[in-house]
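As described in the Methods, two query proteins were run sequentially through the folding procedure within a single session, without resetting any intermediate state between them. The first query and its resulting structure tokens are shown here.
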Amino acid sequence: MLSGEFSYNTFASVYERYTTMVGRVAEADETAAFLERFCKGRSALELGIGNGRVAVPLTERGVTVEGIDTSDNMLKLLAKRTSLIKAWKGNIADFNSEQRYRVVFCVYNTFMVLATREEQIACLRSAAEALDEEGVLVIEVRVPDFDGFVDGQKTTTMFVDHENTFVNTEIHDAITQNLTQTLLWFTGESVRRIPERLRYVYHQELDTMAECVGLELSERWGDWKRGAFTDASKRHVSVYRRTRLKC
């Protein structure tokens, strides 16, 4: 298994550059604005906080943000960036916190780094237990897309400019709902290889898993600007609230 820790420790030194090129840094303020409306002056916890791409602008909006990450290198980047955020190394699939938060959030494809259904349910359970009575869990997840796969394999050119080329190779295991992928980053005469294993999840399955740990869907959007979630959406932003435990 290719762990998120391995991947993001390797990725840390170029993470900000990469996320800038693919547009994720530019939308960080939109993400922070979306999350702020749920915080109401209370605290928030980010699962997979990384270098603080979202946590820092959310802190700048007056929210007290804490975070968890498996990557030592990412946590070092966060510490260099700000001293206002308390973050610790931990497994988002199984964590405990005495603090209760108004918002727990997991963005980008971090939830999919948990490569089994059991780990994903455990993450949802830990997140639910960390919410206060009025708290919400916000998860951003990519919508599975299997166009272009041939015999369970796919190669895609993700980004090209005058200096960089991103090529992503993927192998699909339908039984485990796993995508084993490798990003190849060509820059000049060098090549950087970044492997990762993800478990994709459809929104209906995510709702069912959430119900099993005492959460129910409150809102679902197609992006951080609160655009409609439709059949054409490439991702969704789902908001869950606590409810009675159902199973």
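Immediately afterward, the second query was submitted; its sequence and tokens are:
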Amino acid sequence: MRVRKTIPAAAFAAGAALALSGCAGFLVPAGEGEPVRATATRAPAPAPVPDPGAVTGVPTQGAPSPAAPADGCPASGAAVEMGPVEAALFHRAVTLTLTNCGKKPYRVHGYPSVRALGDDGERIPVPVNAGGSMFGNDKGPEEVMLEPGRSVTSILAWVSTKEGGDLIEGDALEIAAAPDAGARVFPLEGHDIRLMDELNTTAWRTDTGG
């Protein structure tokens, strides 16, 4: 595991600006790559070149992996989305949304699973804490039997201040509904967005305000 070079927070704080940035990303299915070209055989009559997507076991480039559900809903039935990054003085936050995209109730209780990733996709040592921030208080876990189509939210925040010591630069966030649920990777865009000293999350709830 290679940890990105830490950046002194004092140097970053001098150039920090109040900005609103957005970020979104998608987890690329493992093993998806260039399609295998099928070779047309010479025949008495001209034969069309086979479509690469028709070759057994080889997906067409850009098409979803055969293992992925046709409707895009994970096998767990819990789809996680990350909203745009909100910015305040040396503070950053995003709203995470968990939606039951399945056909039966989904039990929610606890906090989202969040990890910071480096430029090579490896996890980097950024602490993840359960707790609130200036963007919202943590009211603690709420057990919810989430009906199909319904959602709960969580606030993910991080601090970039000189009091936080050296800052680590992360390139993406790996987020899942729970530690045992499938994760998605959301790239972080913008130098002032990627710097962090720790990550704080509130519990999944139907109401994260207050």
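The CA atoms of residues 156 and 201 lie 4 Å apart. We note this only descriptively and draw no conclusion about the first query from it.
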